[in-house]
Amino acid sequence: MRNLKEVETIVVKVGTSTLTYENGRLNLRRIEILVRVLSDLQNAGKHVILVSSGAIGVGWQVMGLDHRPNTVPEKQAAAAIGQPQLMSIYENFFRKYNQKNAQILLTHMVIDDPQMHENAINTLSALLDYKVIPIVNENDTVVTDEIRVGDNDTLSAYIAQMVKADLLILLTDIDGFYNSNPSCNPDAKFISEVMKITKEIESMAGDSASDLGTGGMRTKLIAAKIAHSVGTKTIIMNGESPENIYRVLEGDIIGTYFD
């Protein structure tokens, strides 16, 4: 049963396909609504962390390309250009709602190295203590594994693990978890709750159906498993209407809930 009214620390991950229109341009209206919701949750006394993709998507638009870069160096260049642009947009919206934010760029080396891992935990904890909303992304400009894997889903789970979050919310471009890809199978059945991620559940997951996103349901299941290992609940839900986060916290059956 969903009982999320008392959660205190929430990690919200948003993917590129949720942040953009189908043409790849940023959906500023949706970004502002998301920022407003997160700011309001912070005002209500929650601790909030945002894990945001989108730097490469913003970067290739600024570069004047008509398609997502194909090579790793091009993707790194796009990330280097897009990350400050994306942060500027977030900062402007958070400032509008009188919220402080901070940028944190991480790699898997930080997760794997004990000292760097501890430093990252201390930084995140201090930011939360100071009522600052951290905005986390992979450091795509200096490493390539994440670019190839599309691993912000997994990164968000590690962040949830590091801060002992009560809830991980993965915003995506479909309503939640289905028994097959709804983009390919009109008869795919929606699954509202998953109490245990079994091999059968894993076999139902597919890859990203979007040209803009790089992850997929498989990486979201991995994230849910990582979160579950430390007692963090996970919701996979459609990010089209960020206001639905309120309804999720009130216990409404929105998205797929992983206990």
Automatic annotation (TrEMBL):
Catalytic reactions on record: L-glutamate + ATP = L-glutamyl 5-phosphate + ADP
CDD domains per UniProt: AAK_G5K_ProB
Catalytic EC class: transferase
A cellular component term, taken from the record's GO annotations: cytosol
Pathway noted in the entry: Amino-acid biosynthesis; L-proline biosynthesis; L-glutamate 5-semialdehyde from L-glutamate: step 1/2
GO biological process: L-proline biosynthetic process
Protein name as annotated: Glutamate 5-kinase
Organism listed in the record: Lactovum miscens
